[in-house]
Design goal:
Radius of gyration: 17 Å
Order of helices and strands: HHHEHEHEEHHEHEEHHEE
Low-confidence stretches: none
Strand order of the largest sheet: 3-2-1-4-5-9-6
CATH topology: Rossmann fold
Shape: globular
CATH architecture: 3-Layer(aba) Sandwich
Bound molecules: S-adenosylmethionine
Number of domains: 1
Number of helices: 10
Helix content: 40-55%
Structural class: alpha/beta
Distance between the termini: 37 Å
Length: about 230
């Protein structure tokens, strides 16, 4: 499996090339809006990366402040946000478990594919680390605010699959932390099969790249879960 931390600090542009092909049917932003209509909302984003969610939310919300702890990822996000010509956004360095954001500044706290690293990066203490991150979301939300967590339910799968490394985390969110959940398809569509094999291998590893090569399709199915709770 590729070293994802190294990707976030050394290959931000290639990460952006990959996710630019993801969710080609634009399903995610509609799913977010169904949970929490964005118009007039102030949003804080955790683990924003190259700003895929930031860009979509900024076009609809009153404001968004996006944080990540990788400067290279945020540089790409900054460049892409500048190109949008909007003025309702800010991007800053920030650690998910200690956000440099004031308390009660947001109506929506959102993260995508970031908290889900905690179970594999902290196998013996992920509950404590995840509680810190959720605690930061809760702290920055105004009363009545909503948290949304977006995490994988399987790349290369047409039906949701809970990877073994993540199933305890998802169960913990649902059973102990009171999150509701649903799932959507966020399929990738690449320019060619060659690009699909290359970029899927770069991020997800050789095994999935091999499956894509055998299938000879430039569309790669993916399932994504959304977990949310209003405080
Ligand atoms: C898979 S990327 C997702 C990025 C973005 N949310 C997206 O939808 O493309 C995970 C991101 O989480 C960031 N990240 C991981 N752990 C973090 C932490 N503890 N604090 C802040 N950012 C973190 C990484 O730097 C990376 O940009």
């Amino acid at each position: 499996m590729p070293n994802l931390r190294a990707i976030y600090f050394h290959h931000a542009n290639r990460y952006e090339d990959l996710i630019a092909c993801e969710d080609y049917k634009n399903i995610l932003i509609r799913a977010i809006g169904e949970i929490c209509p964005l118009e007039g909302r102030d949003v804080v984003e955790f683990g924003a990366g190259t700003g895929r969610i930031t860009r979509q939310v900024a076009s609809l919300a009153r404001s968004i402040h996006a944080f990540d702890y990788s400067h290279p990822m945020l540089e790409v996000a900054h460049e892409k946000m500048n190109a949008l010509g909007l003025s309702n956004w800010a991007i800053s360095m920030g650690e998910n478990r200690q956000m440099p954001a004031v308390s009660q500044c947001a109506d929506l706290a959102i993260e995508g594919w970031s908290f889900g690293h905690l179970p594999s990066w902290y196998p013996n203490g992920w509950q404590r680390q995840a509680s810190l991150a959720l605690g930061e979301m809760e702290r920055i939300l105004r009363p009545g605010g909503t948290m949304i967590l977006i995490e994988t339910l399987g790349t290369g799968y047409e039906e949701p699959k809970r990877y073994e490394s993540l199933s305890a985390f998802y169960r913990w969110l649902e059973e102990e932390k009171g999150f509701s959940s649903n799932w959507i398809r966020t399929d990738y569509r690449f320019e060619s099969v060659e690009q699909a094999v290359d970029l899927i291998g770069f991020f997800f590893g050789d095994e999935l790249a091999e499956k894509v090569a055998i299938k000879q399709s430039r569309v790669v199915p993916e399932c994504t879960g959304l977990w949310w709770r209003t405080i």
